[in-house]
Design a protein that fits this description.
The chain has 306 residues and is an alpha+beta fold. The protein is 34% helix and 29% strand. The relative contact order is 0.20. The structure holds cytidine-5'-monophosphate. Residues 22-24, 26, 136-138, 153-154, 179-180, 183 line the site of cytidine-5'-monophosphate.
Length: 306
């Protein structure tokens, strides 16, 4: 059973103060893009994970892998009366690791969909999202795809009204950033400025209106990410990458999630091609990729013959 699952970018990421449980309440606008991992699950004697792809360093093995946790969570919740079958989980990785694109959460989401089919567990999409939320804050969105507002830890989703197709250029950085470290840096920066204390996160109504219009020129200047100053403080080189995109005509330039991937909005496919060439020439990132959004959530692509 093979499932294809998209990466996400955050068009808005509004972060509140830290909660007692260590998480931050947030309001975010998730947007799935056409960069996909593929996950195949097969019955096995014990649950294990196998990762293939260009750059798989940093993908955790065994229980630390979110895909393994997802398979175990589904076996516990969905198959209580039918034992705990094991699976081999093969992940074909294209979404870079620790990049702010929710690649690990995507693999967990794909594993949930694949195991739900393989085991004929019969969970509804809403039930799968509920199991996914226990595995990671971004897993429910990887199941849903499209464009959606995330609240709470990011796991409470509302589908967003968004028109049109958006052309993006992703600029991948060398190395990754740890999500907890970026959130911690954000808290430190805010404490130093004594800013943000007690303020809840809020949705940008201007961005929502722009997304309904489907006009990238309206959307571009409204992209925002509260984690960006923290990500840039940990990786000052990202400032150059963002500036290069803006200088070469990007309608919007932002870090995705906790970074370090930089995301640029183009007016159309032709401008995205020009921007990708310019960013490559400027030497401000490891590599670039053109993607489109919104992309669909985790979905089965093939069923192995019986
Ligand atoms: O939920 P997930 O395991 O993906 O979160 C990874 C880490 O990111 C958390 O341990 C926490 O440090 C941080 N986080 C947060 N607030 C959120 C989501 C994630 O502080 N809403």
């Amino acid at each position: 059973m093979t499932v294809r699952v998209p990466a996400k970018v955050n068009l808005q990421l509004s972060v509140g103060p830290p909660r007692a449980d260590g998480y931050h309440d947030l309001v975010t606008v998730f947007h799935a893009v056409s960069l996909y991992d593929e996950v195949t699950v097969r019955p096995a004697d014990r649950t294990r994970v196998l990762v293939t792809g260009d750059d798989v360093t940093g993908v955790p093995a065994g229980r630390a892998n979110l895909a393994v946790r997802a398979a175990r969570a589904l076996a516990t919740v969905g198959l209580r009366r039918r034992g705990r079958p094991a699976v081999e989980i093969e992940i074909r990785k294209r979404i870079p690791v620790a990049a702010g694109l929710a690649g690990g959460s995507a693999d967990a989401a794909a594993t949930l969909v694949a195991c739900n089919e393989l085991w004929r567990a019969g969970l509804s999409p809403a039930e799968l999202r509920e199991v996914g939320a226990k595995v990671g804050s971004d897993v429910p969105f990887a199941l849903l795809g499209g464009t959606a507002i995330g609240q709470g830890r990011g796991e409470q989703l509302t589908v967003a009204l968004a028109a049109g197709t958006y052309h993006w250029v992703l600029a991948f950085a060398s190395g990754g950033l740890s999500t907890p470290e970026v959130y911690a840096a954000c808290d430190r920066l805010r404490a130093a400025r004594s800013a943000g204390d007690g303020e809840g996160p809020g949705l940008s109504t201007a961005l929502m209106a722009a997304l309904r219009s489907g006009d990238p020129a309206e959307v571009g200047p409204l992209l925002s990410n509260d984690l960006q100053p923290a990500a840039v403080s940990l990786r000052p080189d990202l400032r150059r990458t963002l500036n290069a995109g803006t200088e070469h005509g990007a309608l919007g330039a932002i870090i995705s999630g906790s970074g370090p991937t930089c995301v640029f909005l183009a007016a159309n496919a032709a401008q995205a091609r020009e921007l990708a060439v310019a960013l490559t020439g400027a030497g401000v990132c490891r590599s670039v990729l053109r993607v489109k959004g919104p992309a669909p959530g985790a979905a089965v692509v093939t069923t192995a013959p019986r």
